[in-house]
Amino acid sequence: MSQELINAITEMREEDALAITNQLLDEGADPMGILEACRSAMEVIGDRFESGDCFIPELILAGEMLTQISEVIKPRMEEEASQEVLGKVVIGTVEGDIHDIAKDIVTFMLEINGFEVTDLGVDVPPARFVETVKVTGADIVGLSGFLTLAYDPMKETVIALREADPEVKIMIGGGQIDEQIRQYTAADAYGRDAMAAVALAKEWVGG
Amino acid sequence: MFTQPNNWSKLTAQEKREARFASWMDTEKRQFDSPEAEGEYKLRAQRIKDVIDLKEPDRVPITPFIGAYSMKYGGITPYEGMYDYDKYTAAWHAFNREFGLDYLIFSGAFNPGKVYDILGYQVYRWPGGGLSEDVDFQCVEAEYMLADEYDRFIADPEAYYMRVYMPRAFSALEGWAMLPTFFASMELPMAPALMIPAGLPPVQASFKAFLEAGQAALEYAEASGKADGYLQAKYGMPALPGGFTKAPFDYIGDTLRGTRGIMLDMFRQPDKVLAAVDRLVPIATRLGIETATANDNPFVFIPLHKGADGFMSNADFKKFYWPTLKAVLEGLIAAGLVPWNLVEGGYNSRLETIAADPPPAGSTYWNFDQTDMVAAKKHFGDWAAIAGNVPSSLLHAGTPDEVDAYVIGLIDKAGAGGGYAMATGAVLDHTTVENLHAMIDTTKEYGVY
Q1: Which residues of chain A have a CB within 8 Å of the CB of B125?
Q2: What DSSP designation does A144 have?
Q3: Residue B2 lies in a domain
Q4: Contacts for B106 with CB less than 8 Å, ≥ 6 apart
Q5: Do B15 and B141 fall into the same domain?
Q6: Does A55 contact B397 at a Cβ distance shorter than 8 Å?
């Protein structure tokens, strides 16, 4: 049955995924098992994304399905779902840039892959990144920026983060970000997409 | 304004195109400070026409879209550029004096803050309008059309736009939501049914704002025309491109449903999305024709957004994006126009699909961003002019030597046999002076055929 749920999610059958979830719950299935099936489905979708068989619309719909499923199962959960935390990430769109769609997808994919993510939103000044890393004890920072105007704020944010904590790992990403800008900002890495961000984060925490 | 000859409807697409080009290239209709400037105008206009015609021009034309960088170079903030036309003009002139570009390319940097203020524009934030004075304008993605409004949109897109979208997009136009259909005016006893709502205070306030914004837009148009007219007269720079429109899918995905909204709709109500993009084809085509004709210019600017690599599968591109974009391109071409596509992001996975059933040869221009230009030349070179691919990152963070090498590589790869123009991949907001000079000067030297 949980395989049916996995199939429904990976085949982008939203209504079926919800119906199967409800049916499983009615049959007395363990909500944790349902969550586990969701994670397995996301693994499949993540792999397909990496291999170019699945794209942003599929990630957005998958995110939507998972949100709806967790809303249904949450009231039935006796305890908070505990997933092993691989690492802590602070993420945000740098100062001056107000775009959030790509950042939201990266946040979602990191969370689903076991990272605890603090999302600071858009137009985030360097000092807020620094402060949040301190408060959360995050190991990794993700800086997002859609426009070329993000280049300099990214560089300034990296400098501020390094001053406060030379050990923190920093990744950057966005529409006009490439290796040239990684060098320019002195970030540790740049990622083309959400799965690249997950791979980098896993590598950095030794997973 | 391009004036259509009396026999317009009898002309072929090719004849219409030649008529539009002839009008755009006619130096008698334009004023020049010197015979040299007039000569430059002719030369430059011919240069880009040769590229469109897939011929070898005298040299590779230089056609980057200039954005906020012109203001930065001129020492003003984006805020000053939007609110002080004299300052913008001075910066724009200083920029053009310095770099010696071939064309006046539709400057996305020059926009009238006052017009957006009067209208209470919600879809964007700009310096002085929700953003700090040193930040460029940006779109605020949201669902300005709701998921259950497709039927209303499809039934009558103009009516939907006026009474539902515009009141949401422009807070000063909220009164328009109260307007009944204009068909209410069909007979004497019924006409008051239309005019009574028009007398209500919110409707009156909206029309008042609309008229004020129109006045402010005219002031802006005058400033813009003067600023560009001066450069055209002094340096002989032709204006490019004149009209604009968008791909039907982007109309819906950019500012009606938003990225997230339209992507969910592709799964939840694909038939509605398809019906909506279909419905937009004649409207998108008409917009391109009207704006290009008004500007006496054969080119129509079309920024391509949500069909880029990664934004959807190729199967979805073939289903949701390309057919209606192609229909718009063909409609423009039939009207004698040249679509000027700004292909943002990568199009590596789309080249084959488009080339499998392309628009007529010698009728389109594609300014690529992160697309492999060898592949672009291979798939498009026989039938379309290609341009672009100088990365924003290189201009901002590279060295002049790196830029030189990149530009030479592009001319070698994409410029062979003509049909190529040198341009940035994205709109030019950030660069160093030296790097931009390297791009332009190296092209002028190395790009000679």
Answers
A1: 98
A2: E
A3: no
A4: B65, B239, B240, B241, B242, B244, B301
A5: no
A6: no
Q: What is the CATH number of domain A87-204?
A: 3.40.50.280
Do B192 and B328 share a domain, yes or no? no
ipTM over 0.90: yes
Q: What is the pLDDT of residues B257-312, one digit of tens each?
A: 999 999 999 999 999 999 999 999 999 999 999 999 999 999 999 999 999 999 99
Number of H helices, E strands in chain B: 21, 11
Same domain flag for B320 and B280: yes
Q: Are residues B212 and B234 in the same domain?
A: no
User: Crossing angle of helices A56-73/A31-50, nearest 10°?
Assistant: 170
Q: Which residue from B minimizes the CA distance to A15?
A: B268
Write down which residue in B175, B203, B223 finishes a domain: B223
- Shortest Cα–Cα distance, A30 to chain B (Å): 29
| B262 & B361 share domain | yes
Query: Any idea where the domains of chain A sit in the sequence?
Result: 2-76, 87-204
Are the C-beta atoms of residues B349 and B309 closer than 8 Å to each other?
Answer: yes
Determine, for residues B135 and A96 on separate chains, whether the beta-carbon distance falls below 8 Å. Answer: yes
Rounded Cα distance, B163 and B176, in Å: 5
Instruction: Check whether residue B80 and residue B191 sit in a common domain.
Output: no
- Topology of the domain comprising A2-76: 1.10.1240
**pLDDT tens sequence across B405-441:** 999 999 999 999 999 999 999 999 999 999 999 999 9
Residues of chain A neighbouring B398 (CB-CB closer than 8 A): 180
CA nearest A155 in B: which residue?
Answer: B397
CA distance B116 to B187: 37
Task: Report the distance separating Cα B330 and Cα A82, nearest Å.
Answer: 56
Work out how many CB contacts closer than 8 A connect A with B. Answer: 87
Contact at CB, A98 and B132, closer than 8 angstroms: no
| Of residues B141, B263, B430, nearest to A149 (C-beta) | B430
With respect to residue B3, please indicate whether it lies within any of the assigned structural domains.
no
Confirm or reject contact between A121 and chain B (CB < 8 A).
Answer: no
Which residues of chain B make contact with A148, given a CB cutoff of 8 A?
392-393, 396, 426, 429-430
B230 to chain A, closest Cα gap in Å: 30
Q: How many distinct structural domains can be found in chain B?
A: 2
Give me the domain span that covers residue B142. 112-223
Is A44 within 8 Å of chain B by CB? no
Residue B336's region, left for phi above 0, alpha for psi from -120 to 50, else beta, is left
